[in-house]
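pipeline/complex-builder :: batch 7 item 3
reading input block
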Amino acid sequence: MVDVTSRDDIEGLTVGVLGGTGAQGRGLALRWAAAGVPVVLGSRDAQRAEAAAAEVTETVVAAGFAAPSVTGADNATCASRADVVVAAMPWDGHGELLSSLAGELAGKVVIDCVNPLGFGKTGPYPLDVAEGSAAQQAQAVLPSSRVVGAFHHVSAVVLADLSQASVDIDVLVLGEERADTDLVQALAELIPGARGMFAGRLVNCGQVEKLTANLIAINRRYKTHAGIRVTGHGL
Amino acid sequence: MVDVTSRDDIEGLTVGVLGGTGAQGRGLALRWAAAGVPVVLGSRDAQRAEAAAAEVTETVVAAGFAAPSVTGADNATCASRADVVVAAMPWDGHGELLSSLAGELAGKVVIDCVNPLGFGKTGPYPLDVAEGSAAQQAQAVLPSSRVVGAFHHVSAVVLADLSQASVDIDVLVLGEERADTDLVQALAELIPGARGMFAGRLVNCGQVEKLTANLIAINRRYKTHAGIRVTGHGL
């Protein structure tokens, strides 16, 4: 059981990233590695994961950070070794892969950042998900894990660029248990400039995932890599 | 045909607000009235609309703004008199009311700000909408109007408080035609501090509507009235 609410506790944990060779997973791994968190990248192909881990290490060191602990492994080994696991695989195959790792992921927090989108002539659009959202699908196939939705809107381009020393975004964090969402908020805040915000239970994760389509529309219109901030008195 | 892209053009227009006696509609009317835009509040009950119009006028004048042009009428008269019409009625009855006004609304921009939410023991949750979103339902029943989605996330409490001279929010604007979304962005920017941002076509309006459930969850956790800003270089 992971039950931590402060950065001190997080620093003892190893974070696994399933789909860690994709742009989003690799970008998150890079930021956590730069912050000193041990990371295991997972992939179907262990060699590809190891190559990605070597690249992340090289990028972190080249940017002037301390040598990180980043390793690569097949997805099952990644899930087994890590204390907290990020699901960053493509939507296509999401449920199947997670389902196959239910044993390795039992008792762990699984952070789902997957956006179920289709791409048509006029751009991206939200896909219907029988369970309501990728996060709810993950929870359905991982009954012994605690799923938290987060990191949907963090631009992979921005994550990859360590010269951006402060990222101007809030990370919306959705889940059922306060301890778990607190943990993920703390992980979000290891990305310099980012703020983790609780944004509801999993039943409200679908629209957060789908909002990524709107950010892509905004990127196209305004030639940017959009993120969001939540405003309001006291925030 | 409304086809304007600057504030100068907007100032010649009358804005109608269907459901103008509700908190959201009245709040928007208040801000536009304070900015000098002629407003017609609509309600099922013309007398209730007239009473709301008198209250809006009184609030605007008491806050030190010039006497506004705010009138009240039944919904059909409101739709007929206005050049641009905001749909701010409750979700329950949304399609039926709009459908009954298809003639009055023909050829006009209809701005839908309705959020299809249910409320359960653990808070709000998104309702399934056969058409995908309230805005798409509006477009389906109003084939001769041009529907734009906007103003979903603007807190009625913040709108109602004219002492908040600058509102720290972006208004996400969704629609099919650039001229129409530009018009609505300009209307959004009559609210001091607000910025109107194009955020995609109507196919991507559902998640914007439903995100209001997340803002309510944020309000409860952080004791605020949350809004959002879009961040990114160049914005």
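note: The domain at 11-222 of chain B is CATH 3.40.50.720 (Rossmann fold).
queue -> next item
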